[in-house]
Amino acid sequence: MKEMKRSKVITYRWWRSNKQEIKPEHVEALEETADARITEMMKDGFTSGELNDNIHMTDDDPEDGIEYTGYWEVSTRG
Fold first, then answer.
1. What is the pTM of this model?
2. Residue range(s) defining the domain that contains residue 13
């Protein structure tokens, strides 16, 4: 074998209950949460898992925040 090539692709998605829209101002925070959680879980050997976050960033967010749920997975291509 002269060469070996493999790619790992991490896919994640976020959603709110009742199919409500994700607030644009929350997108960056959700990306940061996903990156940190995925990195942490991959160190422990996981290849998929749940994501959860509660965000209160703007004055029009409810006092108890907005709940987001998500899921991530890694796939290997080669």
1. 0.87
2. 7-77
